[in-house]
């Protein structure tokens, strides 16, 4: 379904200059694939993915409501129209898997789709069944990335997922956490050295992962997905309602709006691969996607952005 | 592990947005109409029957009001959005059985306004709120009649009215067992609606709390004289 491995993890790490990469933005392997969309490589293969993906928590759980399903189809269509790649979902998100399937049934499967799904069951024997169910709901044969949701029964699941990857049934394996949970255990799993991806909470007000997890991802050559980029939506709602984007951010990196401010802060971190904001509106989706293009803030500017948000 | 649980917020357990929730209410209304008329008449009839000494029939009507919210709204529709919907749905059907059983053994009775205490008046107000006033919330808040929640069709007004009915008519232990599920639902729904920024969310917490306070009040106040036991009503049905 997707392009094959082109380079090894070791080679990818070389490209990254992994050891020296820490916060040296000039060393970022960041490219603009179509002249607009910024991409980052997945370390283990070198495959590029756009830095802005699409999350589906809450927003795509609309049940069998046809009107809302069609509205979400428009969001998915706009996502790919803007050069999007990764869509992330989970069996825990109610009907979101089915709603994605509904959308793909209407717009087809764009070449740039990078399907990221999760396993969410305590029953180690049910994992294959759950993945098959999810694939059937999406309408895909296989997933690009399969993650263990919030470390639920991760010992059993990770073993099975790695076997599935070996057998070519999935392309990448990852684990997820959110809200800063179980970071010690999360880091221990990362240090095993067999993960392609991790997904964690990272945004301008929640930067705990900078201490241990992002350095671990850099050391181990693991791609990083940032969830909750708007801290569940409350962060951007508050900023939009009460504040204007600072002029210095406009001058420094052409910051257009608060979505640009918050998302560019995330994806400008050298160890981040992709952020996955979720939305129900096409207009917001396009705002988000615009943040995946143009200039990014440098390290000094990132510090200033943090201080500014803390001062509000 | 306990520390891990502390990191969860209510938001983590609400897997849908406000627009999806109110579309669910709206679509349920479309599918159920004109059941609303029957459930409202049923609720009113339950109150009138209770006053006229028909506690058993009144209770049976109240039990019927839990069937659609549990069996259709929660089990068939809400559960599509929230995996916990199945559990809530079965709890509602269980509540129907509990209320029906209490009705069957004559645990609901009317003692007259003259014997109303604080708990009964609070119950009366909650019953009126759940049956008649609750359906105005959505239209007043700008959602229109399509999003109105109705006793016997949607869970919230059904739970509120039931707590009110229980305070007015149930005896001591029967009051407690008929209060548990509606009160728990009110708390769950209040947390959900608060997360969705719905203005009437606090009313549900208030209903559960009033029910609790009323039952405690009834449990500790002076027992009726012999022959007037609340658990051995003397209505014509008994």
**What is the terminal separation of chain A in angstroms?**
46 Å
Order of helices and strands of chain B: HHHHHHHHHHH
N-to-C span of chain B: 53 Å
How does the overall form of chain B come out from the CA principal axes? globular
Give unreliable regions of chain B as ranges. Answer: 225-238
Number of helical runs of chain A?
Answer: 12
**Using DSSP, what is the number of strands of chain B?**
0
Record the strand order, biggest sheet of chain A: 4-5-6-7-8-9-10
CATH-scheme architecture of chain A: Alpha-Beta Barrel
Structurally, the number of domains of chain B stands at 1
Write the CATH homologous superfamily of chain A: NADP-dependent oxidoreductase domain
Give the structure's gist in a few sentences.
Chain A is of the alpha/beta class. In chain A, 40% of the residues lie in helices and 12% in strands. Chain A has a single domain, classed as NADP-dependent oxidoreductase domain (TIM Barrel), CATH 3.20.20.100.
Descriptive overview:
The complex is a heterodimer of chains A (312) and B (238). Chain A contains 12 helices and 10 strands. Chain A has helices at residues 9-16, 66-81, 96-107, 127-138, 154-166, 183-190, 213-220, 234-242, 247-253, 258-267, 282-290, 299-311; strands spanning 31-32, 38-41, 48-50, 86-88, 114-119, 145-148, 172-176, 197-201, 223-227, 274-275. In chain A, the strands form 2 sheets. In chain A, strands 4-5-6-7-8-9-10 form a 7-stranded parallel beta sheet. A 3-stranded antiparallel beta sheet of chain A has the order 1-2-3, with no helix packed on it. The N and C termini of chain A lie far apart (46 Å). Mean pLDDT of chain A is 88; it is low at 1-28. Chain B starts with a helix and ends in an 18-residue tail after the last helix. In chain B, 44% of the residues are buried. The model of chain B is unreliable at 225-238 (pLDDT under 50). By secondary structure, chain B is mainly α. The longest helix of chain B has 24 residues, at 172-195. In chain B, α6 (85-104) runs antiparallel to α10, α7 packs antiparallel against α9 and α10 (172-195) runs antiparallel to α11 (201-220). At the A-B interface, loops of A face α2 and α5 of B.
């Amino acid at each position: 379904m997707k392009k094959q491995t082109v380079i090894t993890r070791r080679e990818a790490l070389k490209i990254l200059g992994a050891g020296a990469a820490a916060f040296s933005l000039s060393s970022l392997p960041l490219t603009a694939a179509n002249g607009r969309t910024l991409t980052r490589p997945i370390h283990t293969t070198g495959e590029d993915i756009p830095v802005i993906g699409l999350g589906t928590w809450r927003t795509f759980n609309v049940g069998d409501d046809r009107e809302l399903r069609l509205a979400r189809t428009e969001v998915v269509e706009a996502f790919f129209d803007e050069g999007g790649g990764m869509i992330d979902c989970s069996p825990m998100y109610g009907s979101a898997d089915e709603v994605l399937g509904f959308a793909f049934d209407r717009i087809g499967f764009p070449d740039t789709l990078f399907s990221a799904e999760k396993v969410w069951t305590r029953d180690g024997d049910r994992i294959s069944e759950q993945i098959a169910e999810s694939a059937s709901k999406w309408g895909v044969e296989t997933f690009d990335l399969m993650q263990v949701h919030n470390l639920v029964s991760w010992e059993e699941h990770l073993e099975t997922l790695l076997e599935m990857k070996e057998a070519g049934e999935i392309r990448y394996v990852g684990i997820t956490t959110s809200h800063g949970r179980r970071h010690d255990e999360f880091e221990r799993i990362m240090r095993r050295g067999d993960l392609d991806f991790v997904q964690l909470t990272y945004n301008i007000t929640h930067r705990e992962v900078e201490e241990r997890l992002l350095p671990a991802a850099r050391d181990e050559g693991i791609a990083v997905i940032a969830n909750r980029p708007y801290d569940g939506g409350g962060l951007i709602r508050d900023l939009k309602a009460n504040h204007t984007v600072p002029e210095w951010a406009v001058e420094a990196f052409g910051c257009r709006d608060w979505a640009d401010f918050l998302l560019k802060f995330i994806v400008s971190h050298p160890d981040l691969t992709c952020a996955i904001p979720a939305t129900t509106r096409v207009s917001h989706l396009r705002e988000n996607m615009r943040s995946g293009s143009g200039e990014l803030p440098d390290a000094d500017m990132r510090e200033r952005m943090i201080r500014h948000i803390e001062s509000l | 592990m306990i520390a891990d649980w502390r990191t969860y917020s209510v938001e983590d357990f609400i897997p849908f947005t406000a627009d999806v929730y109110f579309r669910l209410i709206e679509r349920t209304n479309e599918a159920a109409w004109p059941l609303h008329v029957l459930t409202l008449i049923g609720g009113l009839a339950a109150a009138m029957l209770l006053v006229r000494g028909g506690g058993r029939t009144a209770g049976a009507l109240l039990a019927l009001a839990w069937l659609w919210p549990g069996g259709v709204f929660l089990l068939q529709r809400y559960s599509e959005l929230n995996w916990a919907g199945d559990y809530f749905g079965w709890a509602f059907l269980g509540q129907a059985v509990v209320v029906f059983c209490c009705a069957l053994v004559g645990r609901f009775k009317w003692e007259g306004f003259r014997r109303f205490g604080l708990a009964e008046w609070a119950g009366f107000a909650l019953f009126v709120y759940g049956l008649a006033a609750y359906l105005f919330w959505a239209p007043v808040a700008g959602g229109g009649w399509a999003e109105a929640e109705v006793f016997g069709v949607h869970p919230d007004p059904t739970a509120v009215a039931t707590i009110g009915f229980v305070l007015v008519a149930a005896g001591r232990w029967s009051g407690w067992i008929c209060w548990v599920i509606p009160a728990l639902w009110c708390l769950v729904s209040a947390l959900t609606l608060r997360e969705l920024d719905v203005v009437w969310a606090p009313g549900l917490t208030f209903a559960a709390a009033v029910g609790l306070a009323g039952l405690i009040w009834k449990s500790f106040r002076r027992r009726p004289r012999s022959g007037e036991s609340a658990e051995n009503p003397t209505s014509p049905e008994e």
